[in-house]
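Quick question, first post here. What does this chain look like in 3D?
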Amino acid sequence: MEFGWIINLIGIAFNGLRWAIESILSMTLFKVNPELSEAFASTIALLVSLTAAYILLVVVSAGKKILGIIILLGWALLIVSMIISAL
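> Answer (accepted):
Ran it through. Tokens below.
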């Protein structure tokens, strides 16, 4: 199985994000000097990507904790109900 297309897709998405940020910067903050938008767009795009990955990891780890608590409660309730039914 080849995963090269996934890397290409990520690259295309990153370039699209960089282009969008560059366009927004050149139309707003850097109207006077649009060349500066090229310098900052890549850094902003990288930081946005890393922030999104971080938020995703935080959400997943929080979900993992919640799922662990639910599983623990489920096992505890199962054991308690088995003990009560055996009495």
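Residues 18 and 43 are 9 Å apart (CA to CA).
Residues 35-86 form the longest helix (52 residues).
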